[in-house]
Amino acid sequence: MDHAQILIVEVWVPLPFRTPLSYLFDPALAPDGAAPRRGARVVVSVNNRRLVGIVDRTSQATAQNDCSRLRPVETVLDTIPLLAEQTLDLMLWTARYYCSAAGELLQLALPPALRTSSRLQQSREWLTVRYWRLGRAPTEEASGQLQGRKQRELLTALQTAPAHQIEHGHLRSLGFGKAQFTALETAGLIEEVIMDELAMEAAKGEEEPQAASDGPPAGHTLNNEQKATVEAIVSSDGKFAAFLLDGLTGSGKTEVYLAALDRLIAEGRQALILVPEISLTPQLTARFEKRFPGLVCVYHSGLTDKQRLLAWNDIRLKKKPVVVGTRSAIFLSFTQLALVVVDEEHDSSFKQQDNCRFNARDLAVVRASNQSCPVVLGSATPSLESLQNAESGRYQLLRLRHRTAAFARPQIELVNIRSRKLTGGLSDPAARAILDTLQARRQVLVFLNRRGYAPALFCQSCGWIAGCSRCDSRMTLHRHDASLRCHHCDLRLRLPTNCPECTSGSLVPLGSGTEHAEEALQALVGDDIPVIRVDRDTIGSTSALHDKLELVKAGEPCVLLGTQMLAKGHDFPDLTLAVILDADGALFSGDLRASERAMQLLTQVCGRVGRGEHAGRVLVQTRLPSHPLIAQLLAQDYRQFALNELELRRQLAMPPYSSMAVIRAEAASEAHLQQGLALLASQLKTVMTQQHLGDGVTVHGPFPAVLARKKNRHHGLLWLIASKRATLRSLITGLMSQPASPDRPRSRALQLPGRTGRHQPFSWSLDIDPYETL
Ligand SMILES: Nc1ncnc2c1ncn2[C@@H]1O[C@H](COP(=O)(O)OP(=O)(O)OP(=O)(O)O)[C@@H](O)[C@H]1O
Ligand SMILES: [Zn+2]
């Protein structure tokens, strides 16, 4: 083989490999003789599977390369890079930082239609777009013959459009139709162009500036705090700066993002707004769309494959400069970011909980830094990590201390329910407050973070409790379909009528979930007042939630009942009472972040009321009125809470004052689990000794996971805590190069350790900067 002509193409494939795979490419065989460019897609085969991969690098084969062992690239799908350089760089950075496979991130960086080999043809069809443009040689005579007003309007539209062309669909939406197209085409004044958008590269630089729009509807007149905040953000235009926007619930953070965007995207650049879950906040998206009509693109996994492809491409080609998306949107192909916003930055949904366990909030900072633009992390209840970054000066702290509403803060009262009778979880004082509020024609929010009818089913004669046969957990009673369900593995059983242990018929539900609360609330308020339940069981689709929330927005008296779905950023001016049915549920967990999470959740619920013209009131039902966290909730000083909590973490040398990784292991049996974890622990010791890591790092465990048995697999973990991030890195890198098991040395270290499959006797994975630690 003549090495001089053969190229070696390194390709990332969507499999858990640590390095790209090498393939041969013979330019002589390519139709245009060109090598595939970085970021272009190719089809390659891996273990007889044909996969779509992304080109990382192409180089000349040398005599050192053993080309006979390499397979050829099967097809080059793109002549241009489909993934922006910036996205590819971020993928590689993410894979390195989180010790995972860059190729697997392709699933997030490319929409499904572009990476599934059976959909490739269809994706091309979806991206073929019809345009009309000015004819090449319109004659004077032809122009003179223009008949109708609409024909002249169409011509003017094209004359003033960038590149003198406009998409067919867009023209139709402007009211132009077949009559005008045919007439002008016949006269040679316009012509049709069919374009393969997948083969188009994004406009570079300022070539095609996209004005924010012709006078977007202005927002509120900003108050002084908001103005100062916007100025601080805008003054970092064109350079990297990270801001923590710490603003009370309802202090107008969203208004700040909008105003900053207004100033920053004016020059045709892009902006990314990351939100926890789009389906939960249709209102937020609507606010962006209203302010930037036609310029907002929404990107999340709830879209159909086609919608996702078109949205992805609009973003790539910079047709829609404002992108509102969930965590995977961080991997979109932006080339010219002017601003990145992470709304509700404390939210757990920014952390991916499987495969590559990245935190999109942290990647937002990395991406902004790579692309030299400001990034704003906003929250009323900032994470301790971000607060610490602000304290240490890494992030600039911006504060909004005043609510925009007429009333500063809701009034919070405790209801001690230790010896009270509850109906569907509801105490008498809470019931009275609800009725009073509805009487005054206002709305009520009832928060209960537990779905189903009851969290347990109990036999009064023998004490049996329904448990899951596959997990160490209780089954939840769902009454609407008379089932018992495990919320961990989704096992579903018919509700028994008799106790399976003692056959007695005295089975009773224990405790209350939202289904029970709904029943009790409806009985309390009567049939005329709607009780709107929002939880995972009632919200099948985005539109279902949207319809329910519209009902609340209409302002009629109603009761909005639900789980944490309701705590996320909703803005309903007529909500004046919130009832937290069971504050204690949030207080018991040994997790590192348990208090932080509980405080954030409860504070956010309290923040949903009193946002309009009327004062808000919150009733907190608890059996532990003197619990310190409840006291801090009453004080309504999240910041003080956070500072105390930070001090505690500092004393314990826990994150954010140290770097942490969790090794999660699962096994077919307890014996396999113990054996596997013991091996890992001893390998960690070996690495620590070899590399003299000494006091810099501590390994805790092994210990069982909170749910020690889940889906019939046994779960356990190890904690690695280091004073410096670099030490943790050395330890992890060292561990990765240890043999997978004593009798099975890792041959080429290509495959990531521990990711050999969920059905192995023993497997493990790494969680760097874990959100959940148990
Ligand atoms: N300067 C202002 N003048 C009058 N009203 C304002 C102003 N800024 C914001 N608002 C209104 O106040 C309400 C709360 O603002 P916004 O939703 O921006 O707050 P937020 O801080 O994002 O809230 P949260 O974090 O609780 O979701 C909204 O209805 C908004 O329209
Ligand atoms: Zn189960």
Summarize the helices and strands and which ones pair or pack.
Elements: E1 7-12, E2 21-25, E3 41-46, E4 49-60, E5 75-76, H1 85-97, H2 106-109, H3 112-115, H4 120-126, E6 128-134, H5 140-144, H6 149-160, E7 165-167, H7 168-173, H8 178-186, E8 190-196, H9 224-234, E9 241-247, H10 253-264, E10 270-274, H11 282-291, E11 296-299, H12 305-316, E12 322-325, E13 337-343, H13 360-370, E14 374-379, H14 384-391, E15 396-400, E16 411-416, H15 428-439, E17 443-447, E18 456-459, E19 476-478, E20 483-485, E21 492-494, E22 507-510, H16 514-525, E23 531-534, H17 542-553, E24 559-562, E25 575-580, H18 594-606, E26 617-622, H19 628-635, H20 638-652, E27 659-667, H21 670-690, E28 697-710, E29 713-722, H22 725-736, E30 762-768
Parallel strand pairs: 9-14, 9-15, 10-12, 10-13, 11-12, 13-14, 16-26, 17-24, 17-25, 23-24, 25-26
Antiparallel strand pairs: 1-2, 1-4, 3-4, 3-5, 6-7, 6-8, 18-22, 19-20, 20-21, 27-29, 27-30, 28-29
The chain binds adenosine-5'-triphosphate and zinc ion (ZN).
